[in-house]
UniProtKB/TrEMBL annotation, chain A:
<dbReference type="GO" id="GO:0009279">
    <property type="term" value="C:cell outer membrane"/>
</dbReference>
<feature type="signal peptide">
    <location>
        <begin position="1"/>
        <end position="25"/>
    </location>
</feature>
<feature type="region of interest" description="Disordered">
    <location>
        <begin position="413"/>
        <end position="434"/>
    </location>
</feature>
<comment type="similarity">
    <text>Belongs to the SusD family.</text>
</comment>
<dbReference type="InterPro" id="IPR011990">
    <property type="entry name" value="TPR-like_helical_dom_sf"/>
</dbReference>
<dbReference type="InterPro" id="IPR012944">
    <property type="entry name" value="SusD_RagB_dom"/>
</dbReference>
<protein>
    <submittedName>
        <fullName>RagB/SusD family nutrient uptake outer membrane protein</fullName>
    </submittedName>
</protein>
<keyword id="KW-0472">Membrane</keyword>
<dbReference type="Pfam" id="PF07980">
    <property type="entry name" value="SusD_RagB"/>
</dbReference>
From TrEMBL, chain B:
<dbReference type="GO" id="GO:0009279">
    <property type="term" value="C:cell outer membrane"/>
</dbReference>
<dbReference type="Pfam" id="PF00593">
    <property type="entry name" value="TonB_dep_Rec_b-barrel"/>
</dbReference>
<dbReference type="InterPro" id="IPR036942">
    <property type="entry name" value="Beta-barrel_TonB_sf"/>
</dbReference>
<keyword id="KW-0812">Transmembrane</keyword>
<dbReference type="GO" id="GO:0015344">
    <property type="term" value="F:siderophore uptake transmembrane transporter activity"/>
</dbReference>
<keyword id="KW-0732">Signal</keyword>
<dbReference type="InterPro" id="IPR023997">
    <property type="entry name" value="TonB-dep_OMP_SusC/RagA_CS"/>
</dbReference>
<feature type="signal peptide">
    <location>
        <begin position="1"/>
        <end position="25"/>
    </location>
</feature>
<dbReference type="InterPro" id="IPR000531">
    <property type="entry name" value="Beta-barrel_TonB"/>
</dbReference>
Length: 434, 991
């Protein structure tokens, strides 16, 4: 009897323990949930979220730039640890599930996700933002989103990209390059309207890379400059000129004026991933030999590369010059510079106003230590001269391959080995299940 | 028949006649019963043969029996030991040593959280590794490494040869693809942590995660390496859910239950053992047959070659780096003893082992005190405590994207490169690489230092007992807590740290981890016996487990002078990662034993956890099993040469938790222009995530032949894992690359056969052998998401691919035509091992062969050496199917450049003499002559580890993993720390 009693007592106690022991906890310990922004963004969070966007825009730019520069035969990237930069990328045999395809794509869409979460948060916010503050924030975010989409369609071209990705569970359809460019232009115009309603100042900070573009009015100049690039890609030269007018385009201004990514070694910041010291052996960015041989005498833009002590060879590819665009691991990387705007101005005038085009190109030739352009002003001749200047002025900034593609001259890019090929577009990553 | 009857009558008559002489000579026989290891055997049965007169030994193995008739035969028996019969002619002291039975039929095996069952009655194929098998042949490098080849159904594989370990263990195939696939370790009831924690700073320099695979590839030690094998008495292995269902949501990958040594009452025994030895690389790759012409044609460096040859400066840098013979010293001092109330076992072990690379090594000191105290006959308290201090220097190996690891640097090092320091310790820059491997080896630090306490207590209370039933309460608590400090230093003198080389002027990193696991449980165990030998064992219990971890790492760069404190630098990058989890569970189990003929068990575990979407939702894991001992039924002919036949079947379910934090989509922090920012993570959380559920069915039979001279265990299992936790690829345009999903089902099926034989069993010559054979095949039965690649570097180099209808461990890649095809499978075709123990007089010889047949690796070390022009087989022609192109060129031009991954997927079969040991026990009569009674036992011997290795695999060792132990990522090789063989000599003295 006694035993049964004690068993009963113990069983009752156990049952009580079990029933009463509700667990608590189960929190995400290692960071803020994304819904904390999208559900209701606060004033303090807005600055941090936009810093996140500006930071994320830098992720993957080395892969992005290296792949584009190898395609454009601007330079080679040899690394002793990953042979695919001298293999797949130069050969043009691109696997749609390998980092050179997936990293740039994923990084740009991650930034777009950062932006979309903030846009959602601005719709839902209960903070005391004024309508102008919200409009200004939207204008900045939509401009940056357009920039990211442009980088994507630059790569994937007619393989297509998704423009509408606000709902992760219900992604928009793929559109080809021309539809993507239309959507990007529309987005830039929407953003321009928002910036116009954005009052006199931002309620958040931008990095020093945006110095001079840190009010709604001045940021609009960046927005218009981007539109000029997009319209040039679409061949709408009148629209290019209109957009340039409202941008920071300055024929007599500093060629390097513009918008930049910034880097540092502090904390969670990242170093400039495109910097490599001179004369390295394991990892090198070496200019394509044609960059050195094709240069016009006296063109000081050749100093973007530096003769190596020893050539670096990699499976039949040889580099004699190191790429020397950046001299430290915290140098800024351009997002958009006045030099490109001058080239866009020249391009837009090439057919309608060749004299003005030559004048613009001469600004760059003079800056490069070259005599004024003395060649023919036929459209074909001017196209050659434009592409020459774009090649040397924008070296290593991800333009050459796109330029040769849009002028339908990809086949002119040199292949050093019989196995090599320049592709016209990067495949859509396998995981998009397109 | 008639004859027999007559004899019987005669004997009866004789007995009758002698009765008057001996009838009243009642006398007492007493003594102590111990086992091979001199540990007491409590609860042993002592019966006077042919009578019902019997007794049992107490907790300390002491017995006392009153014998009426002499001469008499006493039968000593106990679970897990061979019975022994001894004749006694009068009252005396009789100490008895029971030997563990060869077949282990009588040993007890855990069957519940607080109960055990005789192996004879067990319905599962539970593997047991004894102390003698674990560390008795040769001292293992780590506890987990010592399990390889010793039982069926496991793949035990070293991730690298770096000192301090790094192992992966998988029972019965892959049980989880992205969840935890390593077993749960329980030491004396304490849930012991087995994490691998990456050290900050390594990836910052190697940038391994920045390229083709986002994992860090640092190959940290898994922390079970801290447990000292010398302290272990016994290990039981529950390989799958059918045996491990009682461990619920933590049991699916199997459970390794470790019991440590205990003391026994009586004379205090002290044992001192010392081992000395060295280790050596298993296989050097060698060099190309360099000549001036070859150096000229390969690199245009014929003149440099000639000059170096002239100056006698050609150097084999592979041997320079890996050619060290690391000294090993193991010292173990243990004492055990006590009285009838309290017993203890205390041990201190010091291991010191240098690696085969200079400045690498492992030091460990482990101190243990196990105390058992009987308050009275009904209450017993056991306390197990263990303190461990270890330090591992692991060098800098594996993949990188910066040319900095020693392994990668070596691939581009040519014999005529001059890399040696001058008299002042200044190292020349490497002419073809961003790091000088000798300088990196000599100057960098990669150290993991651990201080760890493991404490466990068990309280056994006999609440009630009578003739037919008893009730016991078992309460347990345990805590495993450690602090690990990982120190990584890359001084500014290193070639790749210098600012003129684009370096950051020195990196110093400290990673501090505090980990605490605590578990509490209480059980009631009720036994009820009927008069017709049916017994019921009922147990109910509740458990609570708490896990807490906090890792903070600081990586400083641009260091001041030669300072290494992390504040002595220009830049600091701080990371913190926390884990807090609490699980609650209950458990009920009923076992019915019908006359040892039929033994059936039903059980249920319920679990909830803060790691689940609904933290108070219970997940239930049932189990059921039945064993039938046909030989115990009446129809069995006892004279049959088949003396035992058991049929068994067991079914159980168990789970695997989602990785901590999988419920949430959490912003990562970032910094830009001095402003903190938040960015979306790579992986999207899933608030609906639930544990994986494994359902395992196991059936088999056990045979005993020729009075147990031969034993056979045959097991077939089918293990299905549903709601598989997959780190599914999402459309990356969603902003996320991966998302946690319960999205598939996989299956493992396999066969395990163990054959034991007592080949020779004579007084001074015995030979026991165990032959194991096992095989597993897996299949992805269902996938709710598209197939995806994981755990490799993409299809041009060979990668794993999770694909419906295919083997879970398939390796795919592009073939010579550019088509994506299956190129291999990491799963071995089969494995087999042969264990032998031969005792001749005072000598004993033991050895263990292990053959893994099949199973493929992705070998990228050779490819990197090809790019450096240094592969040993560069000029051989063996992989081109047409026999035209030298290997080095083929792998580059026809391999990677042609988008053909075929040359990189290699067969990773091996045959190893894993362990061998030869020992001589000095006969005790000599000891008495020489030392009196001071020294009771002296043993000397030699042993070795991995002394013979046969494999075709074209690198250091087919046992390797660039990505460490989890999931599928085994067998991908990128310039690892090579594995080593060990030679040891031993002396052990008992006082």
């Amino acid at each position: 009897m006694k035993m049964i009693k004690s068993i009963k007592i113990i069983l009752v106690m156990l049952a009580l323990i079990l029933a009463s022991c509700e667990l608590d906890g189960g929190e995400s310990l290692n960071g803020a949930s994304t819904s904390s922004i999208s559900d209701d963004i606060s004033r303090g969070e807005l600055t941090q979220a936009i810093s996140g966007v500006l930071s994320d825009m830098r992720v993957g730019i080395s892969t992005h730039t290296d792949v584009q520069s190898i395609f454009g035969r601007e330079y080679y990237y040899f690394t002793s640890s990953d042979p695919r930069y001298e293999g797949d990328v130069v050969v043009g045999n691109l696997d749609n599930n390998t980092f050179y395809v997936t990293t740039p794509w994923g990084a740009r869409y991650a930034t777009i996700k950062d932006i979309n979460l903030i846009l959602e948060g601005l719709d839902n916010t209960t903070a005391d933002f004024s309508p102008a503050e919200i409009a200004a924030a939207r204008g900045v975010l939509n401009t940056l989103k357009a920039h990211e989409l442009l980088m994507l369609t630059d790569n994937q071209y007619d393989n297509g990209i998704r423009v509408d990705v606000a709902d992760s569970e219900n992604l928009g359809a793929f559109v080809d390059n021309s539809a993507a460019l239309t959507a990007i232009a529309d987005l830039l115009n929407t953003a321009a309207g928002e910036l116009g309603n954005g009052g006199g100042a931002f309620s958040f900070g931008l990095t020093v890379g945006y110095a001079g573009f840190d009010t709604p009015q001045t940021f609009l100049q960046f927005n218009r400059a981007l539109l000029a690039r997009v319209e040039a890609y679409r061949g709408n030269y009148d629209a290019v000129l209109t957009a340039l007018d409202a941008s920071f385009f300055d024929l007599n201004g500093d060629l390097n004026a513009g918008i930049y990514h910034t880097f540092s070694l502090s904390g969670q910041d990242i170093a400039n991933p495109l910097f490599i010291a001179l004369n390295q052996t394991a990892n090198v960015r070496v200019a394509h030999s044609s960059f050195v041989t094709d240069v016009q005498d006296g063109d000081n833009r050749l100093n973007k590369v530096v003769l190596r002590d020893e050539p670096r060879e990699a499976t039949g590819l040889v580099g004699t010059h190191d790429v020397a665009l950046y001299s430290t691991n915290i140098d800024n990387v351009p997002v958009m510079r006045n030099e490109e705007l001058i080239l866009l101005y020249a391009e837009a005038n090439m057919q309608s106003n060749p004299t003005e085009a030559v004048a613009a190109l001469d600004v760059l030739r003079t800056a490069a230590g070259l005599p004024a352009y003395g060649g023919a002003t036929t459209p074909a001749a001017l196209e050659d001269e434009l592409l020459y200047n774009r090649r040397y002025s924008l070296f290593g900034e991800g333009h050459r391959w796109i330029d040769m593609r849009r002028f339908d001259r990809l086949s002119e890019l040199p292949n050093d080995r019989s196995t090599d090929n320049v592709p016209s577009a990067i495949p859509v990553p396998a995981n998009e299940n397109k | 028949m008639k004859m027999k009857q007559t004899l019987f009558r005669g004997a009866l008559l004789l007995a009758f006649l002698t009765v008057p002489i001996f009838a009243f000579s009642q006398e007492v026989v007493q003594g102590t019963i111990t086992d091979d290891n001199n540990l007491p055997v409590p609860g042993a049965n002592i019966v006077v043969k042919g009578t019902t007169n019997g007794t049992t030994s107490d907790f300390d193995g002491n017995y006392q029996i009153t014998v009426d008739d002499f001469p008499a035969t006493l039968v000593f028996s106990s679970l897990g030991y061979a019975s022994k019969e001894l004749q006694v002619n009068g009252g005396s002291n009789l100490d008895v040593t029971l030997e563990e039975s060869v077949m282990g039929l009588e040993e007890v095996v855990v069957s519940g959280l607080a109960s055990s069952v005789k192996r004879r009655n067990l319905a599962n194929a539970v593997a047991t590794v004894s102390a003698a098998e674990l560390a008795g042949v040769t001292p293992p490098k780590t506890l987990d490494g010592a399990l390889a080849g010793k039982f069926t159904g496991a793949v035990v594989s070293a991730n690298s040869g770096a000192p301090g370990g790094g192992m992966s263990i998988k029972f019965r195939g892959v049980t989880s693809i992205n969840g935890n696939s390593q077993p749960l370790y329980i030491v004396d009831g304490v849930y012991v942590d087995n994490s691998s924690i990456s050290s900050g700073g390594l990836n910052a320099v190697s940038q391994a995660s920045g390229g083709g695979n986002a994992s860090t590839q640092d190959n940290a030690t898994n922390r079970i390496a801290d447990i000292n094998p010398d302290d272990i008495a016994n290990i039981e292995i529950l390989k799958g859910a059918s045996a491990a269902a009682i461990y619920g949501s933590r049991g699916a990958a199997g459970v390794v239950i470790i019991t440590t040594k205990k003391g026994k009452a009586g004379k205090t025994k002290v044992n001192l053992s010392q081992g000395f030895g060295f280790n050596q690389i298993i296989r050097l790759q060698g060099q190309r047959n360099w000549s001036e012409a070859l150096a000229e044609s390969q690199f245009g460096e014929g003149d440099l070659y000639a000059a170096a040859l002239e100056a006698g400066r050609l150097r084999d840098y592979e041997e320079e780096i890996f050619g060290e013979e690391g000294l090993i010293s193991n010292t173990n001092l243990s004492a055990s003893g006590g009285n009838e109330k309290t017993t203890f076992f205390a041990g201190i072990t010091n291991n010191d082992e240098n690696g085969i690379v200079k400045n690498t090594g492992y030091k460990k000191t482990s101190f243990r005190l196990n105390v058992e105290h009987n308050f009275n006959t009904n209450i017993k308290l056991s306390l197990n405590s263990n303190y461990i201090s270890s330090s591992a220097d692991r060098g800098f190996f594996n993949n990188d994207n910066s040319g900095t690891t020693i392994g990668v640097a070596l691939t581009s090092t040519r014999p005529w490169d001059y890399l040696l320091p001058d008299a002042n310790g200044n190292y020349p820059d490497h002419p073809n690489n961003s790091s000088n491997p000798l300088q990196t080896r000599d100057l960098m630090t990669n150290n993991e230092r651990v201080n760890r306490f493991i404490l466990g207590g068990t309280l056994d209370v006999n609440l009630y007992s009578n003739q037919n039933s008893n009730l016991k309460l078992v309460a347990r608590s345990g805590v495993d807590t450690y602090n690990m400090e990982a120190k990584v230093i890359f001084p500014k003198e290193l070639q790749f740290q210098r600012e003129d080389q684009g370096g950051v002027n020195g990196v110093s990193a400290i990673t501090n981890t505090n980990n605490k696991n605590a578990n509490y449980s209480a059980f009631l165990v009720h036994n009820y016996f009927t008069d017709n030998e049916i017994s019921f064992n009922t147990q109910v219990g509740a458990t609570n487990e708490q896990f807490s971890r906090n890792t903070v790492s600081v990586v400083a760069s641009d260091l001041i002078a030669s300072e290494t404190n992390v504040d002595q630098g220009a830049n600091q990058n701080v990371n913190q990662n926390r884990l807090e989890q609490e699980d609650m569970g209950f458990f009920v189990q009923e076992t019915v034993n019908y006359q040892d003929k039929l033994i059936g068990t039903l059980g249920l575990r319920g679990d909830k956890s803060t790691n689940n979407g609904d933290i108070n939702q219970f997940f239930y894991y049932p189990k059921a099993s039945l064993a039938a001992n046909l030989n115990n039924f009446d129809f069995w002919n006892e004279e049959s040469f088949l003396n035992r036949l058991k049929l068994r079947a067991a079914y159980g379910e168990a789970g695997t938790f989602a990785a901590f934090g999988s419920l949430y989509t959490v912003y990562q922090s970032t910094l830009v222009d001095g402003s903190v920012g938040i960015v979306v993570p790579i992986t999207q959380g899933n608030p609906e995530i639930t544990p994986e559920r494994q359902k395992e069915l196991e059936v088999g039979f056990d045979l005993g032949i020729l009075d147990e001279r031969l034993g056979l265990e045959f097991t077939w299992y089918q293990k299905r894992v549903d709601d598989l936790l997959l780190l599914a690829n999402t459309e990356p345009s969603s902003g996320f690359t991966t998302k946690w999903e319960n999205a598939g089902e996989l299956q493992n099926r396999g066969v395990e056969i163990a054959l034991n034989a007592a080949i020779i069993n004579k007084e001074d010559f015995s030979w026991d052998a165990t032959l194991n054979w096992w095989k597993n095949t897996s299949e992805m039965l269902r996938m709710d998401i598209p197939a995806y690649n994981t755990g490799g570097f993409g299809t041009s180099l060979g990668t794993f691919r999770i694909e419906e209808g295919k083997s879970v461990t398939q390796i795919v890649g592009n073939n010579v035509d550019g088509d994506l095809v299956q190129l291999g499978d990491a799963e071995p075709d089969f494995q087999t091992s042969l264990m032998n123990n031969i005792n001749y007089k005072d000598f004993s010889l033991s050895f263990l062969w292990h053959w893994k047949k099949g199973g493929d690796n992705v070998n990228l070390t050779k490819l990197l050496s090809d790019f450096g022009g240094t592969s040993a087989d560069y000029d051989e022609i063996s992989i081109d199917p047409d026999g035209q192109i030298p290997n080095g060129e083929y792998r580059v031009n026809n391999g990677i450049f042609a988008g053909n991954a075929t040359p990189f997927v290699e067969d990773a079969s091996y045959l190893r003499l894993r362990e061998i040991g030869l020992y001589y026990t000095v006969p005790s009569k000599h000891l008495t002559d020489w030392f009196g009674n001071v020294i009771s036992d002296v043993k000397v011997g030699f042993s070795g580890n991995n002394i013979i290795n046969v494999f075709d695999y074209n690198s250091y060792d087919p046992e390797v993993s660039n990505f460490g132990g989890n999931g599928l990522s085994t067998g991908v090789e990128v310039t690892p720390f090579p594995s080593s063989k060990r030679y040891m000599m031993h002396i052990s003295v008992q006082f």
